[in-house]
Amino acid sequence: MATYMLTARMWARSALQYRASMVLTMVTSGATASLELLGILVVFGNVSSIGGFSLSEALYLYGTAQAAFFTSDLLFTGTEYLADRIRLGTFDSLLVRPVGVLPQVFADQFTPRRLAPLVPAYAALAIGVAKAPVHWTLLRVAMVPYTLLIGVAVFGAVWILVGAFQIVAADASEVMNSVTYGGQFMTSYPLSLYGRNLMLFLTFGLPLAYVNWQPTLYVLGHADPLGTPSFLRFAGPLFAAALWGLALLAWRAALRHHRSTGS
Which of 119, 133, 121, 136 is nearest to 57 (CA)? Predict the structure, then answer.
């Protein structure tokens, strides 16, 4: 944690040297994220429901997915720059420091501009919580932060897998973006839109269903189209822990595979 905080602080101070540029970038990032939310509102201007979800329910689902993803984006996506570091040979400078490599990678090029997309994400979530036809019990209230924590954990493990893959195949960042940003897009909408086979894969293979879909089914009182048992609505920690274990093993294997760069 100390390594992460010191590295993030260094990069944040560097970014804040150009305050006007930072503000403009944050405005642009927030506006871009807001366009996705506007797209949902446009769609619901023509239909009354999507995948059995009303507008307020869809906003809750969208808000939880976006808030979890952009929080993980803020915390973990130094892994996104690994391909450039490996190609330029600067990844080796992280390896020779007497601190953990992974915290340095997480905080690499940390920037406050990644806070901006969280604004429309939490706005959508707040509207969904306020407007969705939910009988709020203590457990359902607790499921909101639970959903966000599990979502951040799952996306965090995915970022580690992305980093490990880029160490092995240095020029594959765009391929891996299809997993990270593709996962963000898919979890923003009801998984029932994607068909049974893909839903099975996202539930028991790459467990993106536990980012928000399974706990949201409980909160909103929807049945799972797959007919899965109800205890899976609360199984997110188990799948997140398993995914983290796999991701850390892949990361260690990738570091052993790394052979530095040539001249």
Answer: 133
Closest CA to 216 of 93, 134, 127: 134
* Residue 52 main-chain phi, psi, to 5 deg: 85, 5
| CA–CA separation, 92 and 82 (whole Å) | 11
Any residues with CB less than 8 A from the CB of 53 and at least 6 apart, and which? Answer: 61, 190, 220, 222
* Structural contact between residues 128 and 197, judged by C-beta atoms closer than 8 angstroms: no
Count of beta carbons in the 10 Å neighbourhood of residue 13: 10
Residues for the chain: how many in total? 263
- Dihedral-angle region of residue 52 (phi above 0 means left; psi in -120 to 50 means alpha; beta otherwise): left
Block mean pLDDT (10 aa), the chain, length 263:
78 77 83 84 84 90 92 85 80 81 84 86 92 91 94 91 81 69 84 88 88 92 89 91 93 83 57
- Count of beta carbons in the 10 Å neighbourhood of residue 249: 12
64-97: burial string, b at 16+ Cβ within 10 Å, e else: bbbbbbbbbbbbbbbbbbbbebbeeeebeebeee
Q: What gap in Å lies between CA 104 and CA 95, rounded to an integer? A: 9
Amino acid at 229: P
Quote the CA–CA distance of 128 and 55 in Å, as a whole number. Answer: 8
